[in-house]
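Structure (tokenized):
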């Protein structure tokens, strides 16, 4: 009898409750809940309703110097057909 009681208690602890373990969505949350789109903030809001952008939080793209480089960074959507040579097939 006690074994059945212990197994029932174990089952109740292992059972998932869908309502409490689901990811919170705006449909099931309070009215003022805003989920967002997983973006990092680039600044902060001021007390008077303004927004201050912090330059250290902006993305910094490092672009290499391409002077004298043979290839171009653009890829055409309509490529020109190139005749196959015998060297490429070997």
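Design, position by position:
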């Amino acid at each position: 009898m006690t074994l059945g009681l212990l197994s029932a208690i174990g089952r109740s602890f292992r059972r998932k409750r869908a309502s409490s373990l689901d990811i919170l969505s705006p449909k099931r949350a309070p009215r003022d809940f805003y989920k967002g789109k997983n973006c990092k903030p680039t600044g902060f809001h001021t007390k008077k309703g303004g927004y201050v952008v912090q330059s250290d939080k902006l993305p910094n793209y490092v672009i290499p110097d391409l002077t004298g480089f043979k290839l171009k960074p653009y890829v055409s959507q309509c490529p020109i057909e190139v005749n196959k040579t015998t060297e490429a097939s070997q």
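Reviewer-requested clarification: Residues 83 and 89 are 11 Å apart (CA to CA). The helical segments are 2-14, 18-21, 86-89.
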